[in-house]
Amino acid sequence: MPLLKDTTLGIDFGTSNSAMSVRQGTGRARMIALEGAAHTLPTALFFNAEDHRTHFGRDAVGQYLAGTEGRLMRSLKSLLGSALLQDKTAVHNQLVSYQDIISLFLRMLAQKARDELGGLPARVVMGRPVHFVDGDADRDQQAEEALRQAALGAGFENVSFQFEPIAAALDYEQRIERESLALVVDIGGGTSDFTVVRLGPERMARADRSVDVLATTGVHIGGTDFDRRLSLDLLMPLLGFRHAGPTGREVPSRVFFDLSTWHLIQWLYAPRALRDAQNLRTDYADARLHGRLMRVLNERLGHRMANTVEQAKIVASQTDADAPMPLDWIEPGLGAAVTSQGLARFLAQPLEQVVACARECVQSAGLVEQGLEAIYLTGGSSALRPLRQALQTAFPDTPQVEGDLFGGVAAGLAVSG
After folding, report:
1. Residue 209: pLDDT over 80
2. Buried (b) or exposed (e) across 15-54, using 16+ Cβ within 10 A?
3. Do residues 339 and 326 share a domain?
4. In angstroms, rounded to a whole number, what is the distance separating the alpha carbons of residues 314 and 148?
């Protein structure tokens, strides 16, 4: 099938959610529906052990939460730049690498594009964070190349990359009527990225926009890190985290950190990991806590716990009411809750690092806070109220503008092509 000329596909392959947009000629970018009418879908796969089918997005998460026998995988983007990417795992009675699983997800996106457009576009622009890996340029380049190979393996051709905050800036530029100097804040599931960029209607037609990008910075902290912090503070103590055993020493903590990290949960279900967890029994003074941990691992409830934390985080950020986290499927009456005030307290440390990265971006651009005209927010985790309050404290005189939190990057990627 020939490639569609003068057509650019923008792919925002995210840690938590993914989106695609298309631009034909010089027209406006438009989003592609990925799951029903929804323009975004969770970056999730579920390998159904009962019918040997692979499910994606909300369907994948729904299959898992319904108790269907199988394996859920999320946050695969976090493996890019990691030695774990080439490790193999059993999927539908075959051993495949995690890079191949990423390619499988992208192959599904390729089919969605074919269905929508009648073929594949001549150009594909994929988003990437400013840093896949903090402080290691070689591993960062390896991560980009691995994602490129996964996209080529999925059937895409002519694959290039654009920084996600720059793509968000290009989407924002479509909506403004005069030249503006903006700090683009893109808080995704795995990274927080920033760009200071000069935008305006008269600049849109320029082929080379490099002179308009004054600075970019990024840090490997995002929504999944916020979830992990909440899980460690609120849920993992119910399984024995920070619990002092018979000798007065705390239970070894690695299992709790892995259980609070989306892309590491699946490794805890391996036979060796289960044996290691069972052997922790002598480190517990309270056998009930260890029993809860083993039930979570033996019944593969880890992703359900992570989903419970994620949903409570969203509720607590949007309301002033308590966000309950019921765990009665582990033990009757078991659970916890997070308040909006508690959310701000638990996330204070990672948010301090995120805001410091934003300040660094502005300083690298040679600006003071008063030189900015807007802070443009995109990425699902930028909706968190504590984040917005922290940015307001850091930049009190700069108005915050909310973009398309889940589709803005994808639209900007298509424009950048």
Report:
1. no
2. bbbbbbbbbbeeeebebbebeeeebbbbbbbbbbeeeeeb
3. yes
4. 32
Q: Is residue 186 part of a domain?
A: yes
CA 286 to CA 299: how far, in whole Å? Answer: 21
> Which residue range is the domain that position 295 belongs to?
224-346
Local confidence band at 370 (pLDDT 50, 70, 90 cut-offs)? low
pTM of the model: 0.87
Structure tokens at 99: 């890079």
Which of 389, 414, 395, 373 lies closest to 198, judged by CA?
Answer: 373
Does one domain contain both 228 and 217?
A: no
The number of distinct structural domains making up the chain is: 2
Partner residues linked to 76 by β-bridges: none
Of 244, 250, 227, 399, the residue nearest 302 (C-alpha):
227
Helices 348-364 and 385-394 pack at an angle, to 10 degrees, of 40
Taking only the tens place, the pLDDT of each residue in 124-170 is: 999 999 889 878 889 999 999 999 999 999 999 999 999 999 899 98
Q: Is residue 274 part of a domain?
A: yes
Q: Is the pLDDT of residue 205 over 80?
A: no
